[in-house]
Automatic annotation (TrEMBL):
Protein name as it appears in the record: DUF2628 domain-containing protein
UniProt cross-references to Pfam families, sorted A to Z: DUF6404
The entry's keywords: Membrane, Transmembrane, Transmembrane helix
Keyword Transmembrane helix attached: yes
InterPro entries listed in its UniProt record: DUF6404
Ranges annotated as spanning the membrane: 51-69, 75-101
Length: 117
């Protein structure tokens, strides 16, 4: 089965469960799909995969926020401090998001990705 067909079936199943499109297809996964990476929606990904994707996304987001804040303020932020803080915040957000999607998939008894047909 084609990846696009699986995505369509997954979105239909999520819609039937009452999960909104903005929740089922977050911007991080939109960017991955736009970049040509064929990855299941987060409700259908493994817990570890979701941790990796969301940790990377939020860490990058927090680094950008720190550097913009540094540019706009008169005080300087140590680069290593900004990176470590961003990684910690990204890991925290990544684990939280992965836990949410894992719990949501279990609660709605979603079909495993490989069985979508």
């Amino acid at each position: 089965m084609q990846f696009e067909q699986q995505i369509t079936l997954a979105q239909q199943e999520l819609s039937r469960c009452g999960i909104q499109s903005s929740n089922s297809h977050p911007i991080s996964f939109h960017l991955l799909h736009w970049g040509g990476i064929k990855m299941p929606l987060p409700h259908y990904c493994s817990f570890k995969t979701n941790i990796a994707v969301f940790t990377a996304w939020y860490s990058l987001l927090f680094v950008i926020i720190f550097f913009i804040a540094e540019l706009l303020s008169n005080s300087s932020i140590a680069v290593i401090s900004a990176i470590i803080t961003s990684l910690f915040a990204g890991i925290t957000a990544g684990v939280s998001m992965a836990a949410y999607y894992h719990y949501s998939a279990k609660r709605h008894a979603l079909t495993p990705w490989q069985q979508l047909a």
